[in-house]
Amino acid sequence: MHTSIDMGGNNLNSAGVVNGKYGNFDVSIVSNGPVTAGGDIRSTGGWIISRHGRGWMDETHGGGFYMTDNEWIRSLNNKSIYTGGQLKGGSVRSDSDLSAGGILKLDQVNVAGTWCPQNGAISHDSSGGILSCQSGRWSGIDNYPIGSPIPWPSTTPPPGYFLMAGQRFPCGS
């Protein structure tokens, strides 16, 4: 047959395989099995929607994204996420070590002696001096007892301190 078929709005039922170059549909395509495309799948006016804890998966590498609850987007098979750009969020949490390939930049400035949210937190003052949260207050290195060995992140000691050499301190066991 070398002509168009006008079904007049009626159904085409019990067809085996329908072959062709294009398919134009006004409403939707419904399939009870997989839909396979030899090229990109594109949405020009809507979302790509998945259900039941499924999402997107790269079959070759076994990675992708999915959701199993209302809060977290998960990496399929616990794959790592890589970007040459930024990851940005309200907060970033690591349940293990945190490593930076460059310097650690702290944007928030705090004042020694004021309230701090969590013991062990690290910040800096307006001149760049390191502060740590101790007993609910920001504490600078000037609060160390006299004679204490103090680490600092530069080759020169802070103003008012001296660089001492030759003294040994026990490291513990």
UniProtKB/TrEMBL annotation:
SUPFAM superfamilies hit by this protein: Receptor-binding domain of short tail fibre protein gp12
Domain Bacterial shufflon protein N-terminal, chain residue ranges per copy: 1-136
Gene3D superfamilies in the record: Phage tail collar domain
Pfam family, one: Shufflon_N
Annotated protein name in UniProt: Shufflon protein B
Native species: Citrobacter braakii
